Amino acid sequence: MNQNHKIIIAIDGYSSSGKSTLAKKISNILKYKYIDTGAMYRGITLLAIRNRIFDSDLWNIRNFMPVLRDVHFKFIWNNKLNKTDIFLNEENIQSEIRSLKVTKKVSLIAQIPEIREKLTIIQKNFGEEKGIVMDGRDIGYSVFPKSELKIFMKGSIEVRSFRRYLDLQKKGEKVSYEEVKKNIIHRDILDTSRKISPLKKSIDSLEIDNTYLSIEDQLNLVFQLINRIKKNNQIII
After folding, report:
1. What secondary structure does DSSP assign to 4-37, as a single string?
2. DSSP H or E segment with residue 151
3. What is the tens place of the pLDDT at every residue in 145-179?
4. Please, which of 53, 57, 154, 194 could form a disulfide with 48 given CB 3.0 to 4.6 Å?
5. Is position 230 within any domain?
6. Is residue 144's pLDDT more than 60?
């Protein structure tokens, strides 16, 4: 397939709105590379926790930035588990970054301009050859505003909280549904109100409210739009 025929698919949306599930399905069908930018911010959060950045109310981002100077990420397909793993500085951090301790701090890290700038550069580099599906909070609006297909995901707070609650339960985390719901509401506020690259729907995004939609229904909507792009632009994806 000619590389020029490939596109960038940007998927944004609220916490636990099913972005990664949809992105993984699309990438598998199209044989595109899947990039989870939320996992990148979680990776930086894990690094901050390990460096005891949150141990003081007076923590200073200047003390943390030198640690980020040589940070690099890789996304590698895990054949055994049939999923993509994220590597931070050659370490597989896939299991650690989904813990509740990381979840509670990630929105604080995501608000810091220097960190967003650093990760945005890395994310743009991933898209140089196209043929990627990238999900996050500001991909279609900020990172790839000229991407060929933009999707914005949303869902009721109850459904999103229950999804996250089940995920944490499966991982053995001892947490209540109410605690998870409170955390997601807090993350929504931080994500939509931060000054730098807030969560915001692009005017040309396909909005999907999947409160009552199955993953098959969501894929049908997306591939209807992909087929329209192919037809209108005379391209092969």
Report:
1. GG--EEEEEESTTSSHHHHHHHHHHHHTPEEEEH
2. strand 149-154
3. 999 999 999 999 999 999 999 988 988 888 999 99
4. 53
5. no
6. yes
